[in-house]
Amino acid sequence: MIETERLLLRPHIVDDFDAFKAMSQDAEVMRHIGRGPSTADEAWLRFLAHFGRWQIQGYGIFAVIEKETGQFIGDAGFSNFHRGLGANFDPFHEAAWVLSTAGQNKGYAFEAMTAAHIWLETQFKPKKTVCIIRPDNKPSIKLASKLGYQETGLGRFKDSDVLMFERTSL
């Protein structure tokens, strides 16, 4: 578990599912993720994948919990999603974040991902991390820049253009 000033980052637990499903079915939250709102079974399969990432990779996506309320407000962390984007992308830890409407516009994504990067660098000492963001997702592009990511080019994933970013470790 990682604790920041306002957040707890921890592996998901079954009790997170209802809030995770609600976030996954929110069209406004999901519009930049590259898929529309999830059905209940799609949300369940994506939720279960969080558990498997930790088991197989030894790292994964953290549940982001608002300390003041104890509310699940999103996901933040790293994975290898096997996207097929090439040798300059696929072998590296890929950063990922998504916050529910209740968690947005409060600086939580920056706080969570800063803590997740510190954890990853302590545990794995990666040479670099990567991420992809859809070109119309201005808030995530701004966050990636604030986290130290630099755009490396345009890619294509699931029939959509994506901007590819990398961040070299300090």
UniProtKB/TrEMBL annotation:
It comes from the Bacteria. Pfam families: Acetyltransf_3 (PF13302). Transmembrane segments: none annotated. Residues 7-169 form the N-acetyltransferase domain. Gene3D superfamilies: 3.40.630.30. PANTHER family: GNAT FAMILY, PUTATIVE (AFU_ORTHOLOGUE AFUA_3G00765)-RELATED-RELATED, N-ACETYLTRANSFERASE DOMAIN-CONTAINING PROTEIN. This is GNAT family N-acetyltransferase. It comes from Parasphingorhabdus cellanae.
